[in-house]
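re: that chain from earlier
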Amino acid sequence: MEFLELVKLRESVRGYIDKKVEEEKILKCIEAARLAPSACNSQPWKFVVVNDKEILSEIKNKIYDSVIGINKFVLTAPVIIAVVGEKRNLTSAIGSSIKKKDYTSMDVGIAVEHLCLQATELGLGTCIIGWFKNEEIKKALGIPKNRDIELIVSLGYNNNENPREKKRKNIEDIVAFNKY
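^ sequence. v structure.
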């Protein structure tokens, strides 16, 4: 598949069919994320894959917020991946402090996109989720108190076979050559 075609196929999936995701496909997605670049090669991430039905049920209810009705689609996801921000190496930590940039968030974002593109290539759907009950999920998954879940990714087989049309700004509105 051409890379741009893959990028066009990737979408935020809001519903999954009731089908188990094969472990080898999950591991291939994690491998793609593992190979992502990071500032000073710090690789500040750990992926907690949740596919046990009992644990999954508990975690889903900490992502879906019934009060405001956000993330209800996650209730259909057969896999949830909690992406935990890990300690950076010294060089990256110093650079982050000096430049006042959150390299962990940037690096995790790159790794998660690698994961999502690999999933798309394998015929899987994903959704990157930023709204969830961090402390409750950390406790349920045994994540240390001094770590945070940066993002959550739902993973499974899309219940919609036709990708939605991407609505994006025109390229002329987002690019400038040589000067702003």
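DSSP finds seven helices and four strands in the chain.
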